[in-house]
Amino acid sequence: MDHGHVSAPIPEYEGLTPQALDALERAVREGRRVALQRRGTEYVVVAERLDSEGRDDVLVGRLPMTGEALTFRLRDLERFAILP
Questions:
Q1: SS3 letters across the chain
Q2: Which of 1, 13, 32, 47 has its CA at 20 to 30 Å from residue 67's CA atom?
Q3: Are 23 and 13 in contact (CB under 8 A)?
Q4: Is pLDDT of 7 > 80?
Q5: Is residue 41 a part of any domain in this protein?
Q6: What whole-number distance in Å separates Cα of residue 37 and Cα of residue 14?
Q7: Any domain includes 37
Q8: Separation between Cα atoms, residue 58 and residue 77, nearest integer Å
Q9: Residues 6+ apart with CB under 8 A from 30
């Protein structure tokens, strides 16, 4: 028995493919943590909702430590991953 196996890597998304949007919608429904990168800065937020602001789709997430809500324009995201 091999107990030193590595679990499957966490899928990382770049660009707003249908799979990426499905993953974000699922994260919102399940209240999952999302690691995302915008302008070179990484954030980890609890996904709260997907919304529209004008012509932009946005993800609203809360910082786990402070509860502060942050809004990210989806087109500004360089990459993101849904955490287990």
A1: CCCCCCCCCCCEECCCCHHHHHHHHHHHHHCCEEEEEECCEEEEEEEEEEEEECCEEEEEEECCCCCCEEEEEHHHEEEEEECC
A2: 13
A3: yes
A4: no
A5: yes
A6: 10
A7: yes
A8: 10
A9: none
Q: Which residue has tokens 């707003």?
A: 16
Cα(42)–Cα(5) distance, rounded to whole angstroms? 28
Residue 4 placed within a domain? no
- Whether pLDDT at 5 is above 60: no
Distance of CA 49 to the CA centre of its chain: 11
CA–CA gap between residue 33 and residue 63 (Å, rounded): 9
Residue 29 lies in a domain: yes
Parent domain of 27 = 12-82
CA–CA distance, 24 with 20 (Å, rounded to integer): 6
Confidence of residue 4 (pLDDT cuts 50, 70, 90): low
